[in-house]
Amino acid sequence: MNRLANETSPYLMQHAHNPVDWYPWGEEALQRALQEDKPILVSIGYAACHWCHVMERESFEDIETARIMNEHFINIKIDREERPDLDHIYMDAVQAMTGSGGWPLNVFLTPGKHPFYGGTYFPPVKAYNRPSWKDVLLALSQAFKERREDIETQADNMTAHLMQASRFGSNAAPALLVPHDELFTRMQCDIMYQNIMQQADTEWGGFGNAPKFPGTFIIQSLLRYHHSFKVPEALDQALLSLDKMLQGGIYDQLGGGFSRYSTDSQWLAPHFEKMLYDNALLVDVLSEAYQLTGNRIYAQTIAETLSFVQRELTDAGGAFYAALDADSEGVEGKFYTWSKEEIDRVLGADAAIFCEFYDVTEEGNWEEQNILRILQPAAAFAAAKGLDEGELNRKLADGREKLMAVRDGRIRPALDDKILLGWNALMIHACCKAYAALGSELYSEMAVNAANFCIDNMQHVDKQSFYHTFKSGKAKYPAFLDDYAYLIKAFIALQEVTGEFSWLEKAAKLTEYVLSNFSDETNLFFYYTEEGQQDVIVRKKEVYDGATPSGNAVMAANIRYLSIVYDRKEWEERAMRMIFEQSQSVVRYPTSFGIWGGLMLQEVRGVKEIAVVGVDYRAKMIETGRRYIPFKVLLGAEKDKKGVPLLEQREQMGKTWIYVCENYHCIKPVSDIEEIFNLI
Q1: Strands, DSSP E only, in 617-663?
Q2: Which residues are within 8 A (CB) of 549 and not within 5 positions of it... i.e. 6 or more apart?
Q3: CA–CA separation, 517 and 577 (whole Å)
């Protein structure tokens, strides 16, 4: 066993029995590199990563390969989900060196932690136009000994490049001299929409080519653009994307929940790992789609997905686990795929119709196996076959139940049971959105329980800061910008669905902490890491969306919301400056800046400030939240609340009134949201 045996990360513990002398990232390894003047090999992955497992089996478990690694390098394993700060830095370096990136990420550093070479998966023998891992190790070891000066120069240049990439955000101050309606315009929104549609797959939904990711931020942008300007084509593309995913193999047709992405353009064959954040973001956008359309399929998918989360990704204390592996028994997707013979045996006389509906064939639709997918919605399928739709749905449901029972007896994919603050916050927000849309108390309970778990177990003893990860009773690593941004957003959502103003007070307190500890030198954007962190070579600033939303964009949204709640003009101005600074990039590349695009659209359309005051305020807030009002601030209280402008001088004895305002100017209050819904 190597030093990873003392770690809590499931990914690191998977490598604890490798013959490689792995270290976790930390002072022991970094000091040894300096003392022995050896290059550092940093290998980054995560527990649900298929190719990470492949490279481990092929290379890191091989005695001879391990001997070379141990002799020539200080070897460090990093769980990218535990240390996203390091992953971001070294991923950027490898992408700059090679033009591509991914996991496993293998990057070679000088003893001073500066990157000079890297790549992703390397095979054990030369293949796929890639050198073998042993050849890479030996060549780099020799180069480090014989061309040390060149390597140091290359590493210094790369570090300088990484530092330069975060030097932005100092030119926005003059922008606020321009009137608000000239800062953000309908024309910008129209161009964003046109640029999105240039990448849209109008046959199978989604955006771009395979591999195809869910694109939840883009779908949300289209829903909101249509809602704002009544553009049916935008709605059509958003719903097509959702519908094709729900019908495809990326969605688990038996157990609910979404895989990370599809390897093909038709959403058939996913990369089978199920990540907490993907499911949170898809529940988020499905909730908006349901509010907008009333389509019961979206409600059903939300229910199935959250049932999966509760069943398979929820800790006994109420928090959410990180992920399920793609592999079981060493085979990707084995847990989820079927032969036709097996389905025939389980379902008997009903197998034929089930197989036809779910595209199950003798030869298989993927690697001689079958991934369940829907090629034709149930109503159309029933009509084409002359079947009663209700009877068809009953047979399909019965078939799914029987197959699920069989699947539950299989060897399960490994569970990554660490608890990540930011991903939990995304799911808390999703549960709030699902509760608002569907009204199930279960979802609000899931949100509150998880939020309380994070506060009780992941908050520092100073009661100001948080930790990033929790596992085996131990919280570790200072939280990052994304953690705080998502948590503030989740607290805001919790107030909207529970009516408990204390959640907003927590959001405001955390915002103050982020402003003090993450702001850049111009007090405009935010660094990813907290001030004072010593073990990173650069403090990165990131503004584009990845698999999860941009922390800077979410913070801009949070500050904008809270500036209205507390009438903090300096927060409003900062949010405006942040949005304006990104506006040109957002218009040009909207698929990479979905959250920023939504903020620009919000500024064009305006924010509806909705205050509910009176004895029945909670019920009225729930009723209001059920409506699709994407750009709103929703507050509630039984009585006037001093220091909160929207809740001051609103109380009328014995009555509950709904006030709808913009820039604190309110139309006549009403007792029924129906009376003003058409106006907002």
Answers
A1: 632-637, 657-662
A2: 217, 281, 482, 485, 486, 594, 595
A3: 19
The answer for residues whose C-beta is within 8 angstroms of residue 361's C-beta and 6 or more apart is 340, 355, 370
Say which amino acid occupies 192. Answer: M
Return the bridge partners of 632, or none.
608
Q: Is the peptide bond before 104 cis (omega within 30 degrees of 0)?
A: yes
In 10 A of CB 361, how many CB atoms?
11
Residues 6+ apart with CB under 8 A from 145: none
Task: Look at strands 419-420 and 327-328 and give their pairing.
Answer: unpaired
Helices and strands counted in the chain (H then E): 26, 19
pTM comes to 0.96
Nearest of 427, 446, 398, 481 to residue 84 by alpha carbon: 481
pLDDT of residue 180: 78
> Which two tokens mark 319?
């928090």
- Cα–Cα separations (whole angstroms), residue 506 to 23, 463, 478, 482: 38, 11, 18, 17
Kindly state the tokens that stand for 178: 């321009």
How many CA atoms, within 13 angstroms, populate the side-chain half-sphere of residue 31?
A: 3
DSSP for 528-578, please give it: SS-TT--S-SS-----S--SS--HHHHHHHHHHHHHHHHT-HHHHHHHHHH
Integer Rg of the chain from CA = 26
- 283: Cα within 13 Å, side-chain hemisphere: 30
The segments of the chain whose pLDDT lies below 50 read 173
Distance CA 556, CA 514 (A): 12
DSSP state of 118: E
Measured CA to CA, the distance from residue 502 to residue 411 in angstroms comes to 44
- Asked if 483 and 15 count as a contact pair (C-beta separation under 8 A), the reply is no
pLDDT for the residue 679: 67
How many CA atoms lie within 13 Å of 15's alpha carbon, on the beta-carbon side? 31
Q: Which amino acid makes up residue 527?
A: Y
Angle 375-379-381 (CA atoms, 0-180°, nearest 5)? Answer: 45
23 alpha-carbon distance from chain centroid: 28
pLDDT at 175: 55
Rounded CA separation 164/668 (Å): 52
Q: Which residues contact 552 (CB under 8 A, 6 or more apart)?
A: 481, 485, 525, 526, 541, 542, 543, 578
> Rounded to whole angstroms, how far apart are CA atoms 665 and 674?
20
The structure tokens listed for 301 are 């998918």
Strand 40-45, strand 74-79: pairing:
parallel
Q: Given its phi and psi angles, is residue 317 left (phi above 0), alpha (psi -120 to 50 degrees) or beta?
A: alpha
| Euclidean distance between CA atoms 354 and 461, whole angstroms | 55
Whole-number Å distance between alpha carbons of 620 and 497: 11
